[in-house]
Specification:
This protein is an all-alpha fold. The chain has one domain (3-228, 310-322). The chain has 14 helices and no strands. α6 crosses α12 and α8 runs antiparallel to α9 (191-201). The longest helix is centred in the middle third of the chain and has 34 residues, at 110-143. It starts with a helix and ends in a 12-residue tail after the last helix.
C-alpha cells in the first residue's frame, strides 16, 4: 500500500479514537475504581484476546490456501489493525476490509487479496449468525420456564433476523459478493474514489474473485468448514471474557450464562451497527441481558465498562501496527 493511503487509514482511526474518548460514557474516576476492582482479571481479559485474534488470523490463513502467502505474523498484524479500524468506523467493515485488501494485494495479487479478505469477513459475520442462532436454542433449553409474551416476541424477532442472515450469506457463498461489496465501498467519502478506480481497473479480476468465493463453498467444503469452525470457536471462547468478569461480581455465574449474555449483547449492538464501537448500545444490551438472566443489571454495566477498556487497548495496538512493520513488499504476479 502507498504510504499516503496508509496514513489516511491511520488518521481516520486516530480521529475516531479521540472522538470516542471524548464521548466515553463513564468518568475516568469510575474507570479507575472499577479497574482496581477487576484486579488481575483486567490484564487476563486483555491478554486472552491475542490468541483469539490468532484464531481469526488462522481462519483467514486457511482461506488463503497453501500458495505463497505472507507469514502468520504479518497476517496477525493486518487482522488486529483491520479489526481496530472496524471498531472505530460507523457501520463497521468500512475501514478494516479495504485496508487489508490494499496491504495484501502487492504480496499475493489483487484477486487473492480481495477474495480472501471478503471470504474471511463473510465467515466472521456468518459465524456470528450461527452463534446467535445457537444461543436462541440454548436460551429455550435453559430458560423456557421464564418465557412470557414480550420475551417470545423478542426471541421471534431474533430468530427471523438470524434466519435472514444465514440465508443471505449462504446465497453469497454460492454466487460471490466481491463486486457488490466493492461497489458499496466505492460510495464512501475519501477512500471511495480510490476503491472505485481499483474496481474499474480490475473488473475482470473482481469477477474472478466472485468465482473463487463461490468455489470455496462448492469445491472446498473442508476448508469452508474448518474456517467456519475456527471463527465459531472464537465466538465461544470469547465468552470466557464475560465469565471471568462476572466472577468479580457474582461467583455463581455459569459459562452458559456468559454465552447468552455475549450473544444477546452482541446481537443488540449489531442492530445499531451505525454507532462507532456501539457506544451506549453495548452497555444497554449488557444490562438488559444480565437482568433478564437474573444476574442483576448492575453487573452488566460494570462488566461492559471493563470490556470497553479492553477494546480501547487493542484499538490503540491496532492503530500503532498500521504504522509499523511496513517494509516494502515484493509485488506478486499471482
Amino acid at each position: 500500500m502507498k504510504p499516503k493511503l496508509r496514513n489516511i487509514f491511520f488518521l481516520i482511526g486516530l480521529a475516531a479514537v479521540v472522538i470516542m474518548l471524548l464521548r466515553f460514557p463513564y468518568s475516568w474516576q469510575e474507570v479507575m475504581v472499577h479497574a482496581r476492582r477487576a484486579g488481575i482479571w483486567l490484564p487476563i481479559v486483555i491478554a486472552m484476546w491475542l490468541p483469539l485474534y490468532g484464531m481469526n488470523t488462522l481462519a483467514w490463513r486457511v482461506i488463503l490456501g497453501h500458495k505463497p502467502a505472507p507469514s502468520f505474523g504479518r497476517l496477525l498484524k493486518l487482522t488486529i489493525s483491520g479489526f481496530a479500524l472496524n471498531y472505530v468506523t460507523p457501520v463497521g467493515l468500512l475501514g478494516g476490509e479495504p485496508y487489508r485488501i490494499m496491504e495484501l494485494q502487492d504480496e499475493v495479487g489483487s484477486v487473492r487479496a480481495t477474495s480472501s479478505v471478503i471470504l474471511h469477513s463473510m465467515m466472521h459475520i456468518f459465524s456470528h449468525f450461527c452463534f446467535w442462532a445457537f444461543s436462541i436454542v440454548l436460551f429455550l433449553v435453559l430458560y423456557h420456564d421464564s418465557l412470557n409474551g414480550p420475551l417470545v416476541a423478542l426471541l421471534s424477532f431474533c430468530t427471523l433476523f438470524c434466519l435472514a442472515g444465514l440465508y443471505f450469506f449462504t446465497w453469497g457463498y454460492r454466487h460471490g459478493l466481491a463486486m457488490s461489496t466493492l461497489c458499496f465501498f466505492a460510495r464512501l467519502p475519501w477512500l471511495g474514489r480510490h476503491i472505485k478506480r481499483f474496481t474499474q481497473r480490475n473488473e475482470q479480476k473482481i469477477q474472478e474473485t466472485d468465482r473463487q468465493i463461490a468455489a470455496l463453498h462448492s469445491q472446498r467444503p473442508a476448508i469452508f468448514l474448518l474456517s467456519l469452525g475456527l471463527e465459531f470457536g472464537c465466538r465461544m471462547l470469547g465468552c470466557l471474557e464475560i465469565l471471568f468478569l462476572l466472577f468479580i461480581f457474582n461467583p455463581h455465574a455459569s459459562y452458559w450464562d456468559s454465552v447468552l449474555i455475549q450473544a444477546f449483547t452482541s446481537l443488540f449492538a449489531n442492530l445499531v451497527f451505525f454507532i462507532p464501537m456501539q457506544v451506549g448500545a453495548r452497555e444497554g444490551g449488557m444490562a438488559w441481558s444480565t437482568g433478564a438472566l437474573q444476574l442483576g443489571a448492575g453487573y452488566g454495566v460494570l462488566t461492559s465498562l471493563i470490556i470497553r477498556l479492553r477494546e480501547l487497548f487493542w484499538i490503540a495496538v491496532g492503530m500503532l501496527l498500521i504504522k509499523t512493520g511496513n517494509n516494502r513488499q515484493t509485488k506478486s504476479t499471482i
